[in-house]
Amino acid sequence: MPSPLSRADFDELLREVLTRVEGVLDEQARLRLLLDAVVTMAADLTLDGVLARIVSIASTLVDAQYAALGVLGGGPGRRLRTFIHHGMDRGQVAEIGELPAGHGLLGRIIDHPEPLRLHDIAAHPESFGFPPHHPPMTSFLGVPVRIRDQVFGNLYLTEKAGGGDFTEEDEDVVVALAAAAGVVIENARLYEQTTRREHWLRATAEINRLLTSAETAVDPLQTVADLAREVAGADVSWVVAGADADELSLQVVSGAPADVDAMRMLDLGESLASRVVRTGEPVAVEDLAADPRALDVSEVLGWPRLGPTVVVPLGTSTGGVEGVLALAWTRENRERFHDLDPTLPAAFAEQAALALQVARARQDQQRLEVFQDRDRIGRDLHDLVIQRLFAVGLGLQGTARLAEEPEVAARLERAVDDLDATIKDIRRSIFALGAMEASADIQAEVTRLVERAEATLKFRPSLRFEGPVRTMVREDLAPDLLAVLSEALSNASRHAGASAVEVVLAVTGDEIGLTVQDNGRGLPDDVRESGVGNMRSRAEQHGGSLDLLSRAGAGTLVRWTVPAPRSVID
Predict the structure, then answer these.
(1) Which of 153, 165, 216, 256 is 20 to 30 A from 11 in CA distance terms?
(2) Is the CB of residue 89 less than 8 Å from the CB of residue 80?
């Protein structure tokens, strides 16, 4: 029986052969294009660049007018977090408004990651239709992009050139492209993860350099919070200090307003921070406000509304937990949280805690050296200078008895009095040198100075503390504050002739203020500037000031103020 081709005329046969040859040539050209596409995709290691290339190449391979790649989010729901498109200009995108989130037909491919070809998008029962200003689209091809067994996202192609439908060959080509794209995307993600790890390592090295360098004066906890927030891409970070889970305090904040008074009043006994301090294990939550274990501080402190949060311990395996470092993102930026490897901030926090311990050890060593110098200076002043002044005073007293002129005798007596006053000043300085060695409690030291002043004033000055004095007056400030108080009480005793002296040490907001007020006769016109100058100098070296108000018969007011330093882990 003759075949159908034998009955066809020569022209028809020739057309059939040419058509088949052209199809073979087109297929070979498409395969070459696919191979070139895989090679060019692999040349780009940045994830954004890879995704944009995939969309453009897919559109070219199957002659689609529009193409897009929807990247799935990492949180619950697995909806689209990124939508990369090709074929529409910026004006069209702006008119359409929000990009798809992964509902309707796009959601079906997310829930059922299998290739899907349609003749008409609108005819599918799960189609939501298009928003206003969206270009018309009919033919459709969707293919999942997989990385091993995990679906990374989906390729969407619409509007086949010439108005036809996407063919089975188109589907095969796009499936092959998606398989190759999965490998390239995984390489790009690994590259990004490596880059992030390098950033964390650099931040750790920077923290070690800053906290262990003797030349650099930085706030340790603020530096930890700032660097961690920057590297993690977090919106807010903060540090909570305290080795006891029931006595934690919020110390520093980065990325949000820091209201010191409100921070001090927070009760962190039932919070993620207390949980981490108790267990020593990091905690991560999807939504800070919704988690029953968490204390949402956003409203209390006026921070932006926070969602995903990571809390890691600030401690070492041998030194215990001294506090926590928290990183938080707003709900709009939750994908940064899902992209974060939680082991990185945990390792950073452990190294930061170690650096803090080294920094404190260095400070203790420096403090010990200072105390040794103070001991030496105190011994030299007591054993040499005071004894010599005392001997000179005795000699002058003997000379005064031999003086025949009353004026000469009076001058010698005044010189002896000046020597006695100088000896008292030196002894007071020796006491100030060692005042902080006996106790680090500033309230006890201030109380002791006021009690000692009672012996010379013949009455006890009133004393009042306001605000968190113990926690806000740090060790570097205490010696100057005590020296100023000692000088002010000495002046009141020697010059004022007062019947009442009031001492107030107050911490209000960001300021520490020491006030000494008496109801005496006021300062004389010829008062020596040396004592006042020393008090003013001690204020200025901490960025503060000294106010001295005095009127004849109306008493004297000394107000010494300095900015409150930021706290560190005690």
Answers:
(1) 165
(2) no
